[in-house]
Amino acid sequence: MVGKKILQENPVLVSIAGLCPAVAITTTVANSLVLGVGTIFVMLLTILLSYLLRNIIADQFATGFHIIAAAGFTTVVQLVVDAYFPEVSASLGIFIALIAVNCIVIENVGFARKKILSDALKNGLGIGLGFMLVLLIMGAIREIGGAGTFLGYKILESGPAPNSLLMLVPGGLLVLSALCAFTRWFHLRFGKARKGALHS
Amino acid sequence: MKNIALNNKMKSLIAMFLVLVTMAGVVYGLNWLLSDQFQQNAIEAERKIPRMVLPEGNYFDLYDGNLVENVSACYVASNGAGIAVVVDQKISHGGIQIMVGVNNEGQITTVAILSQDYTKGNDAGINNSEYLSVYIGRTLLTASNISADYEINPVPGAEEASDAVYQAVKIAFLQQAVIENAIEAENKKAAEDAEDGGN
Q1: B-side interface with A, Cβ within 8 Å?
Q2: ipTM metric
Q3: Separation between Cα atoms, residue A90 and residue A125, nearest integer Å
Q4: Are residues B189 and B94 in the same domain?
Q5: Domain total of chain B
Q6: Taking CA A117 as the corner, what is the angle to CA A113 and CA A119, rounded to the nearest 5 degrees?
Q7: Taking burial as the number of CB atoms within 10 A of a residue's CB, which of A3, A7, A13, B36 is the most buried?
């Protein structure tokens, strides 16, 4: 289930959700890692709290409650990142606080009320890991191609000069489009082959 | 039936309020736990500010010896790359805070305007890289003011502010001399003490 959520139902590449942080903050791998881990942390704890209080909170208050819970956990993430990774925090800016209203988090936390806890957590973990995977791939492509570094260490001593376009928003959109196109091609090519193999 | 619906609503609202209060408590506690780390980060950040005028310096320590008049702070690079001097100047339109980097060979590395009390008028024109870069590499300014210096021209319309920057650079040289003299005196005293100890 987790693997399916990461690859076949990837929130960014298949559902086209969470595009703002994916384009805006993936200029470095460190940014992607911190935002990815933060999103998973907020999502899992919000799912857990939402599940535990599902019989107390009425349906009409559920969305508001999810936002309150997610905002609280997001503040915890913000404080920890501010304290131990101040440079990453400055680079991520408002996007840490926006985890609380990330559509990926809000949409998937809602399922927690209608599912078994382990299923809800697996769903959240798969979606979160899928989101983080895309952020990491984009961060790696943009940091290596745009600055010639990986996690801040210089890796391109010789060869083509880094292209600063990759560090800009248009560069982020180009990388995201290429990844979306690759995913679609991959699903059409190998999804069909697998279906064919099952039918024969 | 109506009462049950109302009770459910009240129950939800009370639960949400309790969650909110608990979250606020957790955040407050975490903030208190991390306060030392935040303080340390602020000190680290302050120690990195002088890098804008002396990029060769890694970390900077605040110089606690004698400061020349108008110098509000002086940072010494811990790797011996040089010093960064913050000079507060006053002109008729208000104050200007200037940071000057001097490397260990006595050359100006960068001059930066940290703040200006005024935002309009010609004096704001000094904050341009073309004017500020004329000081880079200089080891001495001999004229009493900018209009008497034949090598450096003031920014047109910002003569008073240009001279404030010129004087700030001269003050930075003076501050460097003060620090060098202090180090020399300290070394001399240490050598004398060692000699006395030997006798």
Answers
A1: 8-9, 11-13, 15-16, 19-20, 23-24, 26-27, 30-31, 34, 37-38, 41, 44-45
A2: 0.77
A3: 27
A4: yes
A5: 2
A6: 100
A7: A13
CA distance A80 to chain B (A): 8
How much of chain B is helix, strand and coil, in % rounded to 5?
55, 20, 30
pLDDT at B198 (0 to 100): 64
The pLDDT, as a whole number, for residue B93 is 77
| Mean pLDDT of all residues in B98-112 | 92
Is B81 among the domain residues?
yes
Using CA atoms, how far apart are residues A175 and A21, in angstroms rounded to an integer? Answer: 14
- Provide the percentage of residues in chain B whose pLDDT is more than 70: 94
Mean per-residue pLDDT, B101-113: 91
CB pairs under 8 A between A and B: 59
Residues B92 and B190 in one domain: yes
3-state secondary structure of B147: helix
Tell me if B42 is assigned to some domain.
no
* Binary contact (B23, A61; C-beta < 8 A): no
Q: Check whether B28 has a pLDDT greater than 90.
A: yes
Q: Is residue B40 part of a domain?
A: no
Q: Which structural domain, as residue segments, surrounds residue B177?
A: 50-198
Per the listing, tokens 């208050």 go with A61
Contacts of residue A68 in chain B, CB cutoff 8 Å?
16, 19-20, 23
**Residue ranges, chain A, pLDDT below 50:** 196-200
User: How sure is the predictor about B120, in pLDDT bands with cuts at 50, 70 and 90?
Assistant: low
C-beta separation of A26 from A138 below 8 A: yes
User: Does residue B182 have a pLDDT over 80?
Assistant: yes
User: Do residues B17 and B111 share a domain?
Assistant: no
Residue B64 belongs to a domain: yes
Q: Looking at the structure, do residues B22 and B64 belong to the same domain, yes or no?
A: no
Helices and strands counted in chain B (H then E): 4, 5
> Do B191 and B156 sit in the same domain of this protein?
yes
| Domain extents in chain A | 2-199
